[in-house]
Amino acid sequence: MTWNQFLLVALALPLAVALLNYLVRSPQIRKGSIIVMALALIASAVWLHTRVGDEAVVLSFPWGNLPILVLDLAILAYIAYVGIERRHPYIIALAVLQLAGLFYIELGLRPDVSEVPSLVIDRLSVVMYLVVAVIGSIICVYALQYMEEHDDHAHPEERKGRFFLWFVLFLGIMNGLIFANNLFWLYFFWEATTLCSFELIGHDDTRESRDNALLALFLNSIGGLAMIAAIFLLVNTFGGAAASLFAVVNSGLAVLSTSFLAALAFLVIGGFTKAAQLPFQNWLLGAMVAPTPVSALLHSSTMVKAGVYLILRLAPAYSGLPLSTAIALFGGFTFLAASLLAVADDNAKRVLAYSTVANLGLIVACCGINTALAVSAAVLLIVFHAVCKALLFMGVGVIEHNVGSRNIENMEGLAARMPAMMLVMSIGVFGMFLPPFGVLFAKWAAMEASIREPLLVALLVAGSTLTALFWTKWLGRMLSTLPREEEEARPVPMSGYYVTSLGTPALGLVMLSLGLPAVVNGLVLPSTMTWYPSAIQGVSGLNLAAFSWANYYNPEIVLGNAVMPEGLFPVGLLFVGLLLMLVVPMAFFAPEKERVGDIYLSGENLDEGPLSQYFAGAMEIPSQVSLGGYYFRGILNDRTVLSLNIVAAALIVMMIGVVAL
Amino acid sequence: MSWALIGMGVLGAPLLGGLLFGIDRKVTARLQGRKGPPIVQPFYDVIKLLAKDSTYTNRRQVFYLYSHLLWMLVALVILLTRQDFLVFVFALTFSEVSLALAGFATKSPYSHVGSNREMLQILASEPVLVFMAFALYLATGSFLTGGVFLIDEPLLFSYPLLFLAVLLVLTILMRKSPFDISSSAHAHQELVRGISTEFSGKYLALLEIAHWVELIIILVIVFLFWANPWWAGVLLALGAYFLELLIDNTYARLKLGSMIRTTWAWGFGLSLVNILYFTL
């Protein structure tokens, strides 16, 4: 395969499949074409992984500059049109400002970008491409089944054609975004993801979904404007050659001029909007009105990951600057604030959304810490968070279709009704915060790296504890079943599409965590090696207690006459723990030989119904047991949200202030 | 040293912990003017529980109870092999989360109340332990607990405030008044015992054994504050243990909100002030 053929698969194939499904509305063609595309994308990701070495691949398509510019203008014009049609003055203003900026840059400054490579593919792009191609494809397969069940009576095939147009297109655009180097190209893909998410969030065409789609368009337009401002500052000060992402990253231009720093800050703020950091989080929370595959896609592999990808990519450029510290504190604050808000919500998708915001905040904090360990933790978080979130969102979608609600309280006793989904959700939730899974490893690395900023330490400590609280709370609601309820319940059959699309990431999560040393050595370290050559050391093998462990930290701290590593993550030992956790109950527990007891209801149990969940209440009236979770609404309410948003906005202002100084 | 140490730890910790619980009951009885049970009474209790016909209410309850004990042992092994303290805190948290899930697994009002409170106890205790990991790093340059055996000045001297915070948290981890809110050992405060309401027979025994291991873990945490020379740490740990017994017998339990406020304001505050003071 040549590079052109690869780009045909990565960019043109999704575009072609998207158009095909829009024009030909046949279920067979839809299923066939999307499954073939999914396989092709996964195969191309594997090919790319083997093909790209430490040296970045530079691809230039100067002929593409003009069409890209025309498309940029077309998207902006369309956004302005949407603003006018929906009478949203801010969207109109933002679109017009971006148009004016783009016209001024092109006609006023006339930058010569012919020497700027259009696309650059390095190891970080490979990691991102693996995430987008594999996770995105799995979600596509899931969407095939989900959209069959999704309510749409009037024009089912027509609506599905429209849905898959934007959905599949999103993958192609995301692929473009992670390869783009020419800032005008990057800007085009950036705006195109905004457009795709606008169309997908508004897909159901209800009042709520249209309003939320507009909100997403509005908030992401702020990011678009920030990016235009950054391009203007770069081109205006340094000329056309500066419109290159890798030039900015390698800071050949960084004479620490204010305009360069301001451009960096604007690019990072653009990343914040896309990554739904506070105070921009509302578009992502609103996005959950869309069909679940859209949420899964937005949260795991596309859109929000584009935001943190840009911030991560730029990390070497702001390394060592006060800007970096400001970014770290901002990310840490978002991590804490979003975790806090997740505790107070009983809507499963909103909890997942807050958790996404929190984890992206952690990634941003890692970029801000800007050490080899921290940046590696950021890459790891991107990978593992994508797998976990895709799994959890797809799981919630299946549950929602069966339970008829996305409220956590209504998922009570899910363990009995849908044991398979319980397993899937448990793996997903455990994957997010428990050992030995990858997210926890990344969190460990992030926390150990945060020691350089004591204030950040406090933010991460508090946020991380709250994370445990809301996950356990949710898991607890799903686990809560009556004695014998599972034996009485009739299992819900699962479609083959669901089994494939949920089983792959669930199994993948366990395998990736088991192979953590390989993931770190094979994917993460190479992706950061170029800019962080002092890279952390991966030591694996047999040691002290004959457990294998991964030691990703400065391995030689001399203390007295002993030498010890700075930190140690015993992957092997923790997996032994996990294995014992699965094996020991099986060995010692024979359910058929033991008696199942009734629940304790102060001795007032009544014999009504098969599950004996009634008790004699006041006046001897039979009452049914009913339970609920803790949500702390007294302390955590809209006022909390407002004050957290204000603090976040103040932090952003502070960040710009840091640049100005 | 390693395998023998792990073996000794995994087998010895419950025995030592059980014995200390026996002493606890004896001392408590004496403080209350009673004669008290023999010191080996906790072992009699567990043997009796193991011999009983066991009933369970839910398969997942059993699964998570085993998980509670197993991860407690994993945490102990991490501590004994002088590994990363932060990883130890994560393993301990997993153990506590498993216990909460075991309580949640049965749709029973009392065990749910207990589990919710257990979650809040984790919320109250985990931050201080994580801060301790950072204190270890700042004092020794490594997150590994092995470092404290090599520094000349005990951790206690540079982190007196953090030590106070840890003492506060110990009360929570040991499930002692005034913070025994998820399940209290004192019948005068609780007629139905929160989180363990639905555990019986050998599963209740599992929980007891996990408590014994937990007690040893707690004492090791205190020990780390003065690990060089080792006997100073042992004295410190025993001192802290008897202090907790005294507090347990002189305080009634607090309400949920008061516990959260106290531990977050004082525990979090003292630790942070101490860490900031040390770094600046």
Helix percentage of chain A: 55-70%
Radius of gyration of chain A, CA atoms, in whole angstroms: 25 Å
Distance between the termini of chain B: 39 Å
Radius of gyration of chain B: 18 Å
In terms of quaternary structure, the protein is heterodimer
Binned strand content of chain A: under 5%
Number of domains of chain A: 3
Basic shape of chain B = globular
Secondary structure tally: strands of chain B: 1
What does the largest sheet of chain A look like? Answer: 3 strands, antiparallel
Structure in words:
The complex is a heterodimer of chains A (661) and B (280). With 661 residues, chain A is mainly α. Chain A folds into three domains: 3-527 and 642-660, no CATH class; 537-592, no CATH class; 600-629, no CATH class. Chain A has helices at 3-23, 27-51, 65-85, 89-109, 123-149, 156-179, 183-201, 207-238, 245-249, 258-274, 282-286, 292-300, 304-318, 322-343, 348-369, 372-403, 414-417, 419-433, 438-449, 454-479, 485-488, 496-514, 516-529, 571-588, 638-660, and strands at 57-59, 119-121, 557-559, 562-564, 595-596, 605-606, 614-616, 622-624. Chain A has a three-stranded antiparallel sheet, with no helix packed on it. Chain A has a two-stranded antiparallel sheet with strand order 1-2. In chain A, strand 7 (614-616) and strand 8 (622-624) form a beta hairpin. Chain A starts with a helix and ends with a helix. Chain B is mainly α and 280 residues long. Chain B has one domain (2-279). Helices cover 72% and strands 1% of the residues of chain B. Chain B contains ten helices and one strand, in the order ααβαααααααα. The longest helix of chain B has 32 residues, at 109-140. Chain B is globular. In chain B, 60% of the residues are buried. Classes of the chains: A mainly alpha (661), B mainly alpha (280). At the A-B interface, helix 19, helix 20, helix 24 and strand 5 of A face helix 1, strand 1, helix 3, helix 4 and helix 5 of B. Strand 5 of chain A pairs parallel with strand 1 (55-56) of chain B, so a sheet runs across the interface.
